[in-house]
Amino acid sequence: MLVAGCSPEPSERAISRPPPPQRHADTLRRSIDVSTLGAPVVIRGVDVEPQPGGGLAVSYRVDATGPALVPARTMCRVGDRNVVYPMSASGKVAGPRLSSMYRADPFTDVPGVCQIEFFYAPTEQTRWQPAGRACWQGGALRDGACPDASFPPPELATAGAVVLERTALELRDSSATVTALFTLTQPVADDRRFAAAIRCADPAGAIIGEAALTFVPLGDIPVGASVFGPITFALERTPARDAQCGLDILSRSLGEAPGGDRIHAQYCVTTRSVRVGRC
Questions:
Q1: pTM for the complete prediction?
Q2: Is residue 183 within 8 Å of 233, Cβ to Cβ?
Q3: Is residue 33 within 8 Å of 45, Cβ to Cβ?
Q4: Nearest to 244 by CA among 180, 201, 184, 186
Q5: Tens of pLDDT along 218-254?
């Protein structure tokens, strides 16, 4: 009697497979550690994820031996503008993984190059000091500042220390809100702070108001950069829809330093138009 031996199943055969391709360590690592600029913190695992509409999500982690707030501020080249998204210090403490969003408002273009700057202070009442920089370009992230030529000054149709574009005025609920793209073309001294004043005139008379630049931090952005946001003024009443509102962007001395108010830009704004100068 002949006994036929069973051949092994295909899964049991020794199958010759090529070794997995060797990938360079840099292609596997999506995040980087950032060199600190003398601040008593360590910034680790910085990562950038593109978002729909030209946005970016920046995440990172901070190590520190004492109290530390380390927010991140991102500036991107969007079209021919250097657009900054205001930073927030809330919750930016050492330990947990932190996140900072960037939006290229009012644009929807994909940023070409972005510089992420980290700042350090033990408390929000302490002056911020630079803590580190990273550059994101072409989907790649690297330690350090972007090349000097990455953010040339924009070509503006209007002259002035502060230039407004894409300006809109909203009058409602005893308030006036001016939303615009604000571009800083000249620096302001460290002992001064930006503010805004408005005077709206209609058939019932004139109404005045002042406001801090809470959502338009012109004093915290580089010269040649732009920031998009609103300035809201509380008023005694709601101006008429056809009111003309004179807007002043000014700076004031801090503390007891002399100097008074200095006007850096003046615009005449209505709900339908905007022009440079006084109303």
A1: 0.84
A2: no
A3: yes
A4: 201
A5: 999 999 999 999 999 999 999 999 999 999 999 998 8
pLDDT at residue 158 in the model: 85
Tens-digit pLDDT profile for residues 33-83 = 999 998 999 999 999 999 888 899 999 999 999 999 999 999 999 999 999
Q: Is 118 within 8 Å of 131 (Cβ atoms)? A: yes
104-133: pLDDT as tens digits: 999 988 898 999 999 999 998 899 999 999
14 pLDDT above the threshold of 50: no
Angle at 262 between CA 195 and CA 231, to 5 degrees: 20
In Å, how far are 139, 195, 221 from 127, measured between CA atoms?
33, 19, 15
Tokens of 94: 């050492």
| Cα end-to-end span (Å), the chain | 114
Radius of gyration of the chain (CA): 27
**What is the reported pLDDT for 256?**
59
DSSP symbols for the chain: ---PPPPPPGGGS----PPPPP--HHHH---EEE-BSS-SEEEEEEEEEEEGGGEEEEEEEEEESS--B--EEEEEEETTEEEEE----TT-BSSSEEEEEE--TT--SPPSEEEEEEEEBSSTTSPPEEEEEEEEETTEEEESPPPGGGSPPP--SS-SSEEEEEEEEEEETTEEEEEEEEEE-S---TTEEEEEEEEEEETTEEEEEEEE-SS--GGGS-TT-EEEEEEEEE-SSPPPTT-EEEEEEEEEE-TT-S---EEEEEEEE-SS-EEES--
Cα-based torsion angle of the residue sequence 251, 221, 100, 108 in order, rounded to the nearest 10 degrees: 110
